[in-house]
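Lab notebook, design round three. We kept the backbone fixed and only want residue identities now. Task for the bench partner: fill in a sequence for the structure below.
Input structure tokens:
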């Protein structure tokens, strides 16, 4: 699980609850009708806006947002550099079995294309088309949560209007005026919290994870084409490291140095 996401939500809710307890009774801020208006209305609008298949994808998207899975671009670079070395020593055909041993279908597909002798421009075109549609699929998920973030405050306002109407309709019953005003204000509160603490942050988290995955696949495309061109593994490594931030490059350099030292030690012992 992604601790940052979970802790952010817990801290946000916790501070609000603590602030409420400092000022009064938390029971005053609990309203089932308000929850139904905000969350029920928001999901109903999402079902109108998107297809059922896209709506059902919300649950897997939540798993992605709360998962700890990250795309390790440095590890991908090390794999591609290793493939470049194998290709120069043993030829492209030697990469087929090694690529199948990885758990990355995109990389497997790219290696298979160059092993089959596909033209470099066609390889780039095929992989970039796949990457484009991957981004489009990711954008649908982001749009769902962004739309939910935009709709929930609107339903909060709708709940406010409902509460005000109920309050005005009960002016001759003073004991019901307070209930109508409570629903009016609490629904607006729920809409603002749902939008700014849940839906919009989740949309932002999904975009961040999508950007990381797209970057990793761009690294793969450049590495695959460099291997096909027969470039020196050290040149391949330096080219691919340009995708990383300076801090990531230093970390990747240290990891690579340790891996090479370990490999040299194994060779010497043999």
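Proposed sequence:
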């Amino acid at each position: 699980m992604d601790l940052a996401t979970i802790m952010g939500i817990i801290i946000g809710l916790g501070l609000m609850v603590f602030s409420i307890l400092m000022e009064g009774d938390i029971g005053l801020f609990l309203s089932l009708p308000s929850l139904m208006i905000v969350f029920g209305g928001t999901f109903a609008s999402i079902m109108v806006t998107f297809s059922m298949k896209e709506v059902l994808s919300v649950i897997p998207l939540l798993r992605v947002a709360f998962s700890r899975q990250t795309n390790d671009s440095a590890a991908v670079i090390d794999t591609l550099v290793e493939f470049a070395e194998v290709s120069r020593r043993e030829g492209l055909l030697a990469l087929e079995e090694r690529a199948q041993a990885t758990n990355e279908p995109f990389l497997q597909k790219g290696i298979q294309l160059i092993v089959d002798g596909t033209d470099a421009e066609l390889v780039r075109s095929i992989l970039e088309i796949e990457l484009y549609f991957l981004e489009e699929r990711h954008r649908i998920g982001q749009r769902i949560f962004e739309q939910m973030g935009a709709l929930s405050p609107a339903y909060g306002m709708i709940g406010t209007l409902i509460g005000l109407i109920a309050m005005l309709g009960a002016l001759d019953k003073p004991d019901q005026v307070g209930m109508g005003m409570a629903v009016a204000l609490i629904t607006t509160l729920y809409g603002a919290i749902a939008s700014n603490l849940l839906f919009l942050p989740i949309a932002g988290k999904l975009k961040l994870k999508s950007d990381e995955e797209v970057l990793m696949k761009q690294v793969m495309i450049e590495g695959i084409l460099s291997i096909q061109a027969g470039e020196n593994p050290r040149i391949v490594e330096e080219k691919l490291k340009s995708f990383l931030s300076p801090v990531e490059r230093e970390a990747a350099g240290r990891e690579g140095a340790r891996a090479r030292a370990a490999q040299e030690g194994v060779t010497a012992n043999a």
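Keep this in mind before ordering anything: The chain has one domain: 31-270.
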